[in-house]
Design a protein that fits this description.
The protein is mainly β. It has a single domain, classed as Beta Barrel (Lipocalin), CATH 2.40.128. The protein has no helices and ten strands. The chain is globular and about 40 Å long.
């Protein structure tokens, strides 16, 4: 099962007492495979990752975010767990710590929502606190 969907993403990023909120409304796809949902969409200039394609694999207790293009990343978000993710920007690879303190997923074949709260660090130094609210509806 794969279908075209409307995706709304609202991201809030807080670092050094400054918060930035971005919103993205885009077309993408929703696919169910082996009991897991996959959300795929193209990034835009709004998110700072223009030219990239992002795929989110949504499992019951974990979300894996894979970005491919000029910037690549592979992050695993699992509530209560700090995972090491990989970012590559302008040919420079970086290991990023990701600690997920909130993960709610309510997806079905018609769409749904995903809510993620997590912090990111590099070499155990705090980078940012992040919150994503993602809504998926039939196109």
């Amino acid at each position: 099962m794969k279908q075209d969907v409307n995706i709304s993403i609202r991201g809030t990023y807080t670092a050094e007492d400054e918060s930035t909120t971005t919103e993205l409304f885009t077309l993408g796809s929703l696919c169910r495979k082996n009991g897991h949902y996959y959300i795929t969409y193209r990034e835009t200039e709004t998110t700072g990752f223009e030219g990239c394609v992002t795929t989110m694999k949504v499992e019951q207790e974990r979300v894996t975010v894979i970005r491919r293009g000029p910037t690549t990343s592979h992050l695993v978000l699992q509530k209560g767990v700090r995972n090491i993710g990989r970012y590559e920007m302008m040919g420079n690879p970086m290991d990023i710590g990701v600690y997920t303190n909130g993960l709610e997923a309510n997806l079905n074949d018609d769409g749904g929502m995903l809510h993620l709260k997590y912090t990111m660090d590099m070499n155990s130094n705090f980078l940012s606190e992040n919150e994503l609210e993602i809504s998926v509806t039939k196109a």
